[in-house]
Amino acid sequence: MTNPTAVVIFGATGDLFRKKLAPALYKLFAKGQTPEVFRVAAFSRRPWGDDQFRQFLSDTLLEKSPNLPSETLKKFLEHFLYIEGDLGSSDSYQKVAEVLGRLDAEAGVCMNKLFYLATPPVSYEGILDHISTSGLAIPCAPVEVGEGWTPLEVRPDAASGRPAFYDGRLTGWTRILIEKPFGSDLKNAEKLDRLLGELFSETQIFRIDHYLAKETLQHILKFRFSDGAFEPFWNREHIEKIAIKLFEKEGINGRGAFYDALGALRDVGQNHALQMAALVAMEKPEDFSAAAVRAKRAAILKKFKLAKDAARAQYQGYKTEPGVSPSSTTETYFKIELGLATPRWRGVGFILESGKGLPQSYAAIEVYFKKPIEVTISGERVLAAAVKFKIQPKEEISIMRHSGNPAEIPFSTYGGAVGETKNEAYEKVLLDAIKGDQTLFTSTDEVVAEWKIVMPILAAWRKAAAPLLKYAKGTMPERRIDIEK
Ligand code: BG6
Fold first, then answer.
1. Which residue among 58, 209, 348, 364 is least enclosed by CB atoms within 10 Å?
2. Which atom of ligand 1 is nearest to the CA of 391?
3. Is residue 319 located within the same domain as residue 397?
């Protein structure tokens, strides 16, 4: 059983919370996968109390799934409390510390504490500074259960001189979850890492890239290294190109202010698309431990180089979306080609392409062979022209046959035993952070390598080295249309 755990969510009324975190927390709760004693402190600016926040949470969940069982929903909501606060004010962090102290007192133990930064990346630095000065990174506030409970007392820590709480009972851990993109550029990411390093050890830091927790992507390593049928062909001799596609039909959907400060390359290129490339290209880890897997992903990410000019485009009408600057040059689409100068991959193009407002939602890694290869799948001889690791519209791995019917055959769903619970990406992110398993989180080496790939592209775009193409929503951008200077 997991020890009593408290999660503090900064940005608890934002888009990420509503769309991903709230449903994930609910599902984990409904499946009995949350710790037995489990509290969520939701932090946001809105002038609310616990009841108003619970109403908001209930409405949010019911909007997406109107038929949730009311008894389970009611029990779920009871685990939440609300902290009205301002991310920039020290007083607000004192409130968080007081609430956590009270939760420890109620639980009668020093609870595990998980801080979730579900805010835009511009806020990370300030939040970390405040976490530091308010002593929140230190597991336990002084707690005296029952009568006479004293709230926090912040004293300078004798060794470091930094403020610290008197440490009553040190039983719980403290961990921090940070959303992608980790920082706004390489310099900022390195600064964040320095700040984090002063507060937490690497084993406490969980840098999220929820694509790593997508089922299909979790299965790539099994597909490549355990099943092994394709591994002899996984190289430049047999593979012509690898296309990584993250296509979204929707536009930015009310996330104007957040998105306009980032653009497609920072939003999904610097992280999701590059992690997809890393999984398909990395060498075999010594074992499947977090350390070994992360080291191999980082090693390959360090080797990717831009092979061709990077194209960018913006959908028509983007500049009039709420929160977007009327003179915005932010890209809503990019297409870049990377290469790897390694014996396995020299000469093979890795084409990463993503956009909003495209004709369809589709996300996959497509691996194309130069000539059809012959493999045996479930005892059947198959001539394969390509392999597709699909995430959208449905998670599956499929083999495209060179000819014959059906043209596409599912490789395996890796479904596990019948009745086994499957967890969606954000459920897995939360569960693994609570378990302390860092395999599906990015290391500092990976994040730095990812920024190093992306920085020259952003610099070239800033100098307007690549034109900003325009495309009509619902179409694929093409070079021939409307170039905006
Ligand atoms: C997020 C991006 O990280 O991933 C969004 O910020 C994008 O812009 C989303 O829509 C896609 O994730 P999923 O899980 O819905 O495919």
1. 58
2. 16
3. yes
